[in-house]
Amino acid sequence: MDPFVALADPVRRDLLRALASGPARVVDLAARHPISRPAVSKHLRLLTEAGLVTAEDRGRERHYALARPGLAPVRALLDELSGRRPPIPESAFDALDLEVRRTVHDRRAGKDAAPGTGRPQEESA
Q: CB 28: neighbour CB atoms within 10 A?
């Protein structure tokens, strides 16, 4: 299920709000709503299919938790609509780190020649 479709229902949004504070059982979540436990279970199943909730069996109980990575498409849309720029990808820093390490290595090895001299910078200064 598409996360946007899952978020269209106010009960499901409220369930996500409740799960944002920590994992909970169906019975605990049903106690907060004026709907039946099977109805809450159905909403949780749809949220799970949308990737917004995870379920973990602990003995005879099933605990549901918010799956924050599932909110990424929603966050991306909101960032796009608000005009925010996406954060700098981690790979950009990897390339910068590699270039800095290469430059430091070349300078230590004396390979960094002064422009036009062909000699290492330490000797040309």
A: 14
For 100-113, write each residue's pLDDT tens digit.
Answer: 999 999 999 886 55
pLDDT tens-place string over residues 8-54: 999 999 999 999 999 999 999 999 889 999 999 999 999 999 999 99
- Give, as one character, the DSSP assignment of residue 114: P
Q: Nearest CA to 6 among 38, 53, 41?
A: 53
> CA–CA separation, 23 vs 72, rounded Å?
20
In SS3 terms, 68-109 reads as HHHHHHHHHHHHHHHCCCCCCCHHHHHHHHHHHHHHHHHHHC
Strands, sheet with 24-25, edge to edge from the N-terminal-most edge strand: 24-25, 61-66, 53-58
